[in-house]
User: Fold this.
Amino acid sequence: MVKEIIVIGAGLAGLTCSVKSASKNIHVKLFSPVQSERSQSVMAMGGINAALNTKGEDDSVNEHYTDTINAGQHINNHNAVEKLTNDAPEIIDWLSRLGTSFTRDDNGNVDIRYFGGQKKMRTAYAGARTGKQILTAINTECRKWEYKDKIKRYVGWRFLSLILDDNKVCRGVVMINENTEEIRDFYADFVVIASGGMNKVFGKISGSLHNDGFVTGKLLRQGVELANMEMIQYHPTTIETPVKRMLITEAARGEGGRLYTLRNCEKWYFMEEWYPEQGALMPRDVVSRSIYRVCHEYGLGIDGENKVYLDLTHLDEKTVKIKLDEVYDVCMNYLNLDPTCEPIPIYPGVHYFMGGIRTDDAHKTNIENLFAIGECSSQYHGANRLGGNSLLGAIHGGWVVAEQLEEIQCENDNSKEYGKILNCEYEAYENWKELQKENNNVSSYEIEKEIADIMNKTMGIYRTESELKDGLGRLDLLETIHVNSHGCYYDYILLKSLISIAKTMLSSALARKESRGAHQRLDYPETDDKYLKTTVTSFDNDKLKITFNDTEERMGW
Assistant:
C-alpha cells in the first residue's frame, strides 16, 4: 500500500519534505495559504551554514556542532544538532545539484563567509538572496513531482484542526479554503506541520505575517506539547519602516560592517571594545543586548533615539552593491539612504522563534503520526539560533522526516472517517456567523494590536516578573471580549490562537527564573544549571502546565 502524507506549509521545510518523500514513492498532499514564492523562506538573505572547509581554516562538522550548542546555551537537542551539522555539507551538495545559484569563489567552489557566533568561514550564500535562490531550486523540483502525480498542491487553504482518533492518534486534518470558506477534511497516514514561526503575536516584525502562529496555538489546544516558548530571537540589525521592521542581513557584518555610536562626538565601536575577538560577529543575543545597553544604560542612542549605526561605508562598492545587493536596495528604497556613503541606523527587532512545537531528534511530536519541521519546530537552536542555521534546519527537517516515513511501517486504516471533528468545525463556523450579527463587538484588528502591544512591552530583550504577570492579566481580559472579524472567519479564530501562544510565552518566561541566551530576566540575571533543560508547555484540564524536561528526551512511539 502506498503511503500518503499531508504537509502543512510550502516554504523550504514543507517543500523539502514533500520532494524527498515523493522520491521515496510516498504520495503528498501539500497545503499552503499562498504560493511557495511568497513564503517567508524567500526573505532569508544571508546564507546557510555548512563546514565545507574551502578557505584553509581547518573547519569541521565538530566545530559547527560546538558553535551551535554554545550559541544555544546547551539547551538544544544535542543528538539533533549532531545530525544537523554532519548532514550540512551533503545538503549544500544536494542544493547545488538542484540548481541553486550559489555565489562561487575563484576556484569554482560554493563561496562561504563569516557569520555571527562562528570563528570560521562557514556560511554559503547566493548574493544577499540566498533563501529565494534555494527555494526556487527546490520548488522547481517539486513541480516535477507534481507533474508525476506524486505531489498534489492545495493553495489558498488554511489549517483548522487535526483529526485525532479516540486514542489520540493523528489521522488527518480539517482545512478551510480562504477564498470560498469551504471546510473539508483530508486523511493521510502521517501529517507534517511546516507552518513557520508565530510572527503575528508581535505585530510588525521582520518576518511574513502569513506565518501568523494559528497552527501552533491550535495544536496546543489539541494536546500537542510546545517547547522553549520564551526563547525569542531579536535580530540586532533591523530598520523601521511604515509597514514593518525590515532586516539588514548579518552578512553585512560578515563582510566587515561595523557597529558604532557617538561618544563625546567621536565614533565608539562598542562591540570591538567589549568583544575584541569577534566584535560585531558575536552571537545575535549578545549583539542585541549590547545595542540595548548602549541606548538604554549609556543613553548614547543616535540623536537620543534607540538607534546605533551599522557602517558599510569603508567596504568597496562592489561588495555592497553585489554581495549585499538586497541591503543596498532596502536602504535606498525604504530609507532613501545610500549605504556606500552613509551609515545605516539600526536597532534590534523580533526575528525568529527558537521555541515552538516540541519535537525530538526525529522531528516526532508527542502525538502519534504527527511531525513538525522548520521554524514551527523546537529542537536545534536552544536559547539562541546561529545565523545561517535557520535555512539549514528547515531543509534538514524535511530530510529527516522523509527518512523516517520511509522506514515507519504504515498501520493506519484511513478508510474509516472521523466526522466528529469536521462537524465541530462546521458548528463553530455557524456560531461565528451568528456572533457577527451583534453590533457591540470589538474589531479583531484592535485585539491584534493589543496583543502585539502586550508582547512588545513584556517579552523584550529583558523581562521582569511584574511585567510578565501584568501581561498575563491583560491577556485574560482579552479572552472575554466579543470580536467582530469584518466578515472573515479565519481572522476570528486566529485571535484565540494568538492569545494562547502569548500566554504560553509569558508563562514560560515566568517559569524560567534565570537568564540564558535570548531569555534575560532583570530579576534573575544569572544563568542557573537547574534550568539546563527544555521548557515544556501543555494544556492540562484547560489550564497551561509548565514543566522542565531533558533536552534529549525521545517521544517514544
